[in-house]
Write a structure and sequence with these properties.
Amidoligase_2; 425 residues; Amidoligase enzyme; single chain; disordered C terminus; alpha+beta
Length: 425
């Protein structure tokens, strides 16, 4: 364990001494780092792990003849839509406008809506596209005609997991919030795909032992990772239809719902599959129990006949265009896969069996992040927990509430998101 990591853990423990109700690191933090020494996930100097992000949002706009309801806001709302023949044409105009804005900022970007082919280019371009699950904000503008809203999904190309790639995702968020009156209502999410690298432009296949390690960690610590997400992304509500709990909604979870030892037996069921010849048995066991929905940790893309997009999809994070939140969650998602890829098999099984019955306060999400080698992200979430009680569902701070670059005070120009949701300080 490096001196800097030891100091980071000490700083975290000192921080949480002042906030005893938060999920602080326990005395296990240092021991976990000694148990799981950091192993490089780079080959020939390059990262092995790959990731991609999906950003969901709504863009506000007005018709050409309408008056801007908030003219003091410098972000564009008129001129996004210039023709109003039919709804499909409107959608195309919104997507094309976003595409051109990102291009002007130096982001390689395409849209798949009718005016440009994206065939063969998705691996190197950001893509502006439709998502029928995105609905406009519902308060208070459902009873006003000031704005029109169009749902948008923007997906990244696959990146190797490194700081520069995460920074580009944060830059895209900043471009969008600086140029558009954008909001992320409850129907939106941030989805992160993580793979094991590329071979000839295609994601590599997963080894069953790596996948079993990862899914066993997620099974044991799902309730700890839940602290990162608001309550509505854990249980109930509209948005949870698209990211239900793996413990509850998977085939394995359903089979154990009346079993008092469900945690332990679920863990053993997953670990038993690490020596399978492929990932199909794990995929079947931990996918949604029926229908087309996908659980919070979606591994449907790991079927043998899938040649592209062989990734785990983390679906639980709420919609946001806050660059630091997006990049931090990407670090967590990639860090979990890196841990599963490099950890000693006997040690991880012993670790999980000892921790499977722990209550969240006995082994916290901060402990877990430190154990997988992400103490830097643990510090970020520590400060978020201080500002927002992680057991509740407070209004999520919007990137639009931060001071604009011209030095104007927050809340004058960039309070659009809070007004949309009816949130008042």
């Amino acid at each position: 364990m490096t001196d800097s990591t030891s100091q980071n853990i000490k700083d975290l423990q000192d921080f949480f001494d002042d906030y005893p109700d938060l999920p602080a690191p326990t005395q296990s933090a240092s021991a976990n780092l000694q148990m799981f020494p950091k192993v490089s996930t780079r080959k020939n100097g390059r990262p092995i792990i790959t990731f991609g992000v999906e950003l969901e949002m709504t863009i506000a706009w007005i018709y050409p003849k309408d008056t801007d309801p908030e003219p003091e806001d410098p972000r564009k709302v008129k001129g996004i839509v210039v023709e109003t023949v039919d709804s499909s044409l409107i959608r195309v105009q919104v997507y094309k406008h976003i595409m051109n804005t990102l291009r002007k900022a130096g982001i390689r970007c395409l849209s798949d809506w009718g005016f440009e082919t994206v065939l063969g280019k998705k691996e190197t371009y950001w893509l502006v596209k439709d998502d029928g699950s995105i609905y406009p904000p519902t308060r208070p503008y459902d009873q006003r005609d000031d704005y029109q809203f169009t749902g948008v999904e923007i997906t990244s190309p696959p990146f190797y997991s490194c700081e520069d790639a995460r920074a580009q995702a944060a830059v895209v968020c900043d471009i969008l919030t600086s140029n558009y009156r954008v909001s992320c209502p409850e129907s939106t999410g941030v989805h992160v795909h993580v793979g094991l690298g590329l071979r000839n432009g295609v994601e590599k296949a997963w080894n069953p032992s790596v996948l079993a390690n990862l899914m066993a960690v997620l099974w044991v610590f799902e309730d700890r990772l839940d602290f990162i997400h608001p309550q509505r992304r854990r249980t109930g509500g509209y948005s949870n239809l698209y990211c239900p709990s793996m413990r509850e909604a998977s085939v394995l979870g359903e089979s154990l719902k009346d079993n008092p030892n469900w945690k332990q037996e679920g863990l053993e069921s997953i670990l038993e599959l690490k020596d399978e010849k492929d990932c199909m048995a794990i995929r079947r066991l931990l996918s949604f129990k029926g229908g087309i929905n996908r659980v919070n940790y979606n591994i449907r893309n790991l079927a043998d006949n899938v040649k592209r997009g062989r990734t785990i999809e983390y679906r639980q994070h709420e919609g946001t265009l806050h660059g630091k939140r997006v990049s931090s969650w990407v670090k967590v998602c990639a860090g979990l896969v890196e841990f599963a890829l490099t950890v000693d098999q006997d040690k991880v099984e012993d670790f999980l069996r000892r921790r499977v019955d722990d209550a969240p306060e006995d082994y916290t999400v901060i402990d877990l992040l430190i154990a997988i080698g992400r103490s830097d992200v643990a510090e970020f979430y520590a400060y978020r927990f201080r500002d927002n009680d992680p057991t509740q569902t407070p209004p999520t701070p919007s990137p639009l509430d931060t001071p604009p670059k011209d030095g104007s005070p927050p809340g004058e120009v960039y309070s659009f998101y809070r007004r949309i949701l009816g949130i008042h300080n």
